Amino acid sequence: MFKKTVACLLSLSMLSTLTMPTLWQQAAADNIKLPDIGTVAASTLTIGQEMEMGDYYMRMLRSSTPIVNDPVLNQYINDLGKRLVSKADSVQTSFHFYIMRSDVLNAFAFFGGNVVVHSRLILDTDNESQLASVLAHEIGHVTQRHLARAMESQNRSSPYVWGATLGSILLALANPNVGMAAITSTLAGSAQNMISFTQNNEQEADRVGLKTLVKAGFDPNASSEFLQKLADQTRYMSKPPEILLTHPLPDSRLADMRNLSMQYGKKSVPSSLNYYLAKARLAVLVSRNKNMATLLFEDYQKLDNQESRTAIIYGSALEYHNSNENRKAKQILNQLLENDPNNIWYIDLMTDIDLDLNNTVEAIKRLEAALKRNPDSTALQLNLANAYIKNGDYQQAVSLLHRYTYENNEDMNGWDLLTTAYGGLRARAQEMSARAEVIALQGDFSQAILLLNNARNQTQGNKILLSRIDARITQLAQLQKRFAKYRR
Ligand SMILES: [Zn+2]
Predict the structure, then answer these.
(1) pTM of the model
(2) Which of 102, 251, 282, 293 has the fewest Cβ atoms surrounding its Cβ within 10 A?
């Protein structure tokens, strides 16, 4: 199940994004003394405030940046991210991981445990340990509360004003249409102080990240390998990749990582099949670069291991499905499913194929069986809801999606499908209420409240529904009021 409309989402907490190379170089040139950032806790910004900011900026990002809304890719990046978080120290927030559709190499962490990885970065990693090393580094920025610390060095009396400034800069950075250079000048004043200690933050995120990486069972050398790869690439480019603007890479950083990882020794950790399949899916469906899939599958051919060979087959099924040759796609995919009937990537693609071929009943049977074996899979739940809708089983879709949206209330996919399912039942009040959640998740509270007020008029005497809608209007109005301080 792949939604071609890349719905937008993400949040924000990223101090490291603030590193403009020119300013950094300037700061270095001026030999600014680095402040001591030895304390872990920041007194200026509480965790609660940070979560609130994360929530606010996430909504802004959902409405302004191309976040990949693909259930299997989302499940993959979150499973990988949470595997690392479970081994990290000082975790105080929940974490959410997002893939942003972008051919620019970058990754960043936002307020409140939100981590965003560009699709290009995933494709550029050589193995899963390298991808994990980038996520672990971002998790390190969050657990070390680098953003809150940055605020400590700013005007303590007005954290929200500062937060709003930072937030708007980060929103601009996350928007692929806004170039780094365009916002450098707006940054100049307020970012100067932060930039002067960003190098320390980078080193700390590296060190904390490496510990997490090793504990989670990945190759300790992956961090320095990937940093080296970035450094090598930079040599042949007229300007450095954006990830080095958001996370500056002086030689000392690379040397530090190399020394530290040497203490752990070499460890061969094969990448999971999921990693190979995720890259195949990104190359075929997400990347805007048409050569990406060809290049990736050439690489996979050279690797020639069980996983890379399997991912090539999966990739060709994806490509056949993409060009509407569904029977060929199905033939290929059937071989894969026979050997690995619980694989969610295959089941997900087979669902798309079956729905295109009007084999909805077959798709539903397969999904129901798969979900029994793997009840926590968000990708399978969304696929099944989608298949129920395509089959006209709206009531079943609604039951499934009620539970789904309760457990994953920040996933717009769930609310989108629920809107469609209620539409199928012609339950207008519920349809509008679900649509209001999609809109609220994109930060447009006025519009969401307007829609809920319209929904009130469609409740047809259902008092429970009416009071539920009223309660939601009150909640959203409160949120809108609370978030007003970030709008300037
Ligand atoms: Zn960093």
Answers:
(1) 0.85
(2) 251
